[in-house]
Amino acid sequence: MAPRRATRRLDGHWPVRLAYFSATIALLAAARMAWVYADQPPLDILAFRQSQTALTAFWAARQGLMLAYETPVAGLPWSIPFEFPIYQWLVAGLSRITGSGIDPIGRLTSFFFLLACLFPVRSIIRRLELPPLTFPIFAGLLFTSPLYLYWGRSLMMEMTAVFFALLAIRYFVDLETNHHVDRATWAFPLAMTMCLLQKATTGLPVVLVLGVLWLILQSKRTGSAKELISNASTWRRILGFALPVLIAGVWTIYTDHVKALNPLGLSLTSAALSKWNWGSFQQRFDTRLYSEVLWHRMLVKNLSAQLGIALLALPFVFRNTTRVRVIALVCLVMGVGPLFLFTNLHLIHDYYQTANLIFLLFGVALAIGACVSTSLGNTVAVILLVIMMVSNTLWFRSGYLPTIKARFDAGNSRDVAVSDVIRRQTAEGEQFVAFGHDWNSTFAYLSQRKSLTVANFHPRYAEVISAPERFVEVDRLGAVVTCTPGGPAVEKLIEWTSKRQGWMIGETQGCFIAVREPPLDTGPALLTGESPFCQGDLQLSIQPGAEGKPTQTLFGWSVSGVTADASFGTMRLELLQDAGKPLVLGVIAIHRTDVLSHLGEVRQLPLGFYRLLTEPIPIGHYTARLVRGTGQTASACRFAEPLVVPAPAATAIRN
Fold it and tell me: Mean pLDDT over all residues of the chain?
């Protein structure tokens, strides 16, 4: 008998330890990744949504918490609320307390909620008296799932909503199993309310499934409809389900009212977005829903394809208790059902599956823990776990990991380059208007300036083009941006600046940016005084313009005079012809990756400059000097070669 007992201990003890060890390694690896790449700006996948969330948190940290919270990307008034900002307020508060930026705090907060999901799941497993092996299997799958490894450290509220959904399920199970009923009676509606307020598309399927499940269980307990209706506890439980939905509905009505005060917000109310959220009837039969979303995104990448399907089916094939089959069925409904409830959202966005894939992960953990381990032994169960974890890891490394490791700077990101110019060339408190960027929040968030980023469907699009200053606060307009493709042609920007004194136009990464010209005093030193020669280049380009008028552009680069405290927000070119008064032109500092590469410069400094001229420079030869800064702190350098402005017959000249 000794050999049999030894075999039993080997099959029962060490596999469980191995399962916990594997899950712990996966968790630690996920935590390390979340920590190492926590400072990544929200420019990776779905930068539109991540930066919008970050923008809300940034201004909440700066201005305080407001019910009609500001997401200043759609112009006046700045408030266009969607979800109740539980996650955003928490990130804002932690950012203020710690003094850290929104990026690392936001990503680590998201990961914290992913980690916190383990606690209600652990409690659910215990309350339902499921095999202990179920928990480490679930944890191992969760922390190797590519979907959760990526979006679980994003600057979004997805994990916060999922955590509250799982917490609500935990208290629902407490109520159904008569554990701590007094606490669960108020904790369930509270957790469900938090989930629905944080993200209705995550909470609504959960409350629907739990409501139907409770009605079925309650009808079996009472035996008749009359007894069900007359039972006082029945109405208390109904209130527990109805109250969260009612509160979420009131919040939606309130947000619709606030959004209606904004011209763009009228297109973003719940009624206006109804078809976008729910999708069409035909989409429920779209092959992409089954082949791309359900099969490829969810099953193949996170559940080992056919192996996952087979495991999800096991509770209905193996001889199991009714309780296990009911739990497995609920997992399937919660895992797949939301695809048919918010079909369009799931088709368009791959992050939406974070709300429901977790139930399929639990279903697989249940199948391995309650079916495979009891029938084939713990060793086989853990082997299956390791196979699935390896599969998930391979998918993650080939898919999401390179994006997580990506670094964004002005050289490889238009968002960074444009935002850098806006932030340097505008004063704190000034605002900007941007075209050709949808109503994307990346410019507004990275530049830390409020904006009207004009979507092409903006109801007053033509008015904004002609008078952008009327769509921000009075005397606060600091920049106007138009990006190609998508935005108005640069001629519109030239036309606007030519009618206003003190504006200049620069260009970076396909975006033209009009900003206020810096102070144009000639500084403490005269042009004819001593100054070092510029290490750099100055060019004049002349291109045909509108109505036959040529357009002149000055651009170049220089590293002379660049110090640690060099001002890149106040730059000017001083052009002297003979002994006359110098012509002084403001220029905009921009990043030049070709220059940085040529110089071997690793610092991301805006060594280039650009100025599109609305008034041409007179023909002639000019001595040119580049000046950074103003007053006694200004630094200057003189270009060795003269700037030659040719006769109109020529098109361009390089010095």
Answer: 90
What CATH topology corresponds to 517-655?
Answer: Immunoglobulin-like (2.60.40)
Amino acid identity at 168: A
* pLDDT of 15 above 50: yes
* CA distance linking residue 343 with residue 280, whole number of Å: 8
Angstrom distance (rounded) from CA 481 to CA 477 = 11
Task: Give me the DSSP letters along 253-267.
Answer: HHHHHHHTTSTTGGG
Interval 151-171: pLDDT, tens: 999 999 999 999 999 999 999
Residues 6+ apart with CB under 8 A from 193: 243, 244, 247, 248
Does pLDDT of 655 surpass 60?
no
To 10 degrees, what angle do helices 102-116 and 158-176 make? 20
Q: Would you give the end-to-end CA distance of the chain in angstroms?
A: 95
Q: Say if CB 418 and CB 443 are below 8 A apart.
A: yes
The candidate with the shortest Cα–Cα distance to 494, out of 414, 644, 611, is 611
Which of these, 228, 207, 208, lies nearest to 218 by C-alpha position?
228
Element (H or E) spanning 454, and its range?
strand 451-454
Q: Is 604:591 a contact under the CB 8 Å cutoff?
A: yes
- The Cα–Cα gap between 362 and 332 comes to 10
Nearest of 545, 454, 540 to residue 495 by alpha carbon: 545
147-163: string of b/e by CB count within 10 Å (b at 16+)? bbbbbbbbbbbbbbbbb
Q: Which residues contact 143 (CB under 8 A, 6 or more apart)?
A: 23, 26, 27, 29, 30, 149
Report which of 501, 493, 423, 424 is spatially closest to residue 464, judged by C-alpha positions: 493
- What pLDDT sits at residue 235? 79
Average pLDDT over residues 470-488: 93
Which long-range contacts does 490-499 make (Cβ < 8 Å, 24+ apart)?
490/612, 491/545, 491/546, 492/465, 494/545, 494/546, 494/551, 494/612, 494/614, 496/466, 496/468, 497/614, 498/614, 498/615
pLDDT in tens, 35-87: 999 999 999 999 999 999 999 999 999 999 999 999 999 999 999 999 999 99
DSSP conformation class of 433? E
Domain range list for the chain: 1-36+136-144+279-405, 408-501, 517-655
Q: What letter does residue 64 receive in the DSSP assignment?
A: -
β-pairing verdict for 536-543 and 551-558: antiparallel
Q: What predicted TM-score, i.e. pTM, was given to this entire model?
A: 0.91
